[in-house]
Structure formats: C-alpha cells, structure tokens
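Figure 2 data, in text form.
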Amino acid sequence: MSKEQWQILIEGKVQGVSYRAAAQATARELDITGYAKNLADGRVEIQAQGHPDSLEQLVDWCWQGSPAAEVENVRVKKSVEVGDFRDFTTA
C-alpha cells in the first residue's frame, strides 16, 4: 500500500487547548509524518502523510481531539504523496 498525503482542516475550539500537541502524539503513534499548525481564522491545519488506514485513524481522532477541544467540523482533502516529511511537527 502506498503512502498518501492528506490535508485535514479542523474547525471549532481547537486553538489554545493543546490540540496540535495531542495531534502530534497521535500522528507519531500511527507512524504519520507531516505537521499541525494554527491558522489565522481559528482552525488547525494538519498536513499528514502515511498509509491510508493510518490517515483514516488520524481523521477519526481529529473529531475528538484533545480533552479541552470542541470540534465542530473536520474537512479532508486527499492527494498522492507530495511532501518529504521525516517527522510530525507543530508550528
């Protein structure tokens, strides 16, 4: 199974609630590389690269997020592998 890269946009109360750090820990457990960063409009963007089954698990996690998060929506855009990520980082 080949790797894919997915952009995941998470909406709701997802900034200032340790969402990115929790996403990083989850992604590393799933052997996913990429990054999570806050966007100016209040969303969190995740660029995730890995096997589709692992990416699906990450998306499922995104609906819950960190304990203090209040996720309202999760949008996913799938593409073929394009990045060269070696780890999962936060920005």
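Caption note: The longest strand covers residues 70-80.
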